[in-house]
Amino acid sequence: xxxxxxxxxxxxxxxxxxFLREIDPARWKNSRKQVLKDRxxxxxxxxxxxxxxxxxxxxxxxxxxxxxxxASVALLQKRLNRVGTLLSELGQISFDSQMSYLQLYSLRxxxxxxxxxxxxIMEACSEPIPHIRPSNLARSLFHxxxxxxxxxxxxxxxxxxxxxxxxxxxxxxxxxxxxxKRVHPAVKARVMKFFEKIAHPHEYDKVNSATWYxxxxxxxSLTNPVLGIIGVTVLGFADPxxxxxxxxxxxxxxxxxxxxxxxxxFVAVGTVAASLALAIMHPIxxxxxxxxxxxxxxxxxxxxxxxxxxxxxxxxxxxxxxLGAWLALMLV
Length: 332
Description:
Blueprint: H1 3-22, H2 33-60, H3 63-91, H4 100-124, H5 137-156, H6 162-181, H7 185-194, H8 209-220, H9 225-249, E1 253-254, E2 258-259, H10 260-281, H11 287-306, H12 313-331
Antiparallel strand pairs: 1-2
Helix pairs in contact: 1-2, 1-4, 2-3, 3-4, 5-9, 6-8, 8-12, 9-10, 9-11, 9-12, 10-11, 11-12
């Protein structure tokens, strides 16, 4: 695609990103009804201009350029058509209806997937745009329940050394699944259907977060019980807490599509959760020592979350938390 069209697409996508944040169910207020209608109209106007630019570019391409670039422009037009259809449906919602909230939630989820399609095009053009972190209660519950399950396993095994042989099959399963996703589109559809309730849209085309978690678990199993407990606990409880706080109250933006409010929630919940887990499962000293180790781990984990896009926070958060705990233990 021509650079001008790429930049115009990015501008529209960023405006769409801001709109998707505004209509996040965690931030939704009745007072925003008219704002929603107005924003939809603005986005539809921008979309018409962008679609016209894409159509104009296809007409200006000579045969050689068309052979090389028409496919990408056609894909962009297809994605824009999808976005336009969903914006039109959003604009027709009657907020006097009791079903309006459910309609909004459903349409936002579908629009988020369409936005992700634009995100992939932008990445291919070396103009990345932010990923949307969806409101996903099932994913948050999965995070917490997985942490509890793993902590129970750690508590029950005769020795922490056993965790490597427990983590290894899960690691192998995850990467086998990733391989199957790339064998055939039908296989990928079946695999992602299994993870539908907890998967982010971008995981349909990239390595699943659960796979990166499998890598983290295998690496943590090579450490010791304290670092393993902390890494699992911080990810399992602080990460969902940060997402909920950030969506509801976040206003001060930080790198990695995060907010200061969410990161502070991460540190607070991570400190409390890790302290309780250590006190119950593997005491390391008095209250002061426990809080120091847990707090340092939570702080490092929050930094890991900020950097978690490379490659995924399910890998960086537990490893960063374990690193923070190890450094704190060295000091005490």
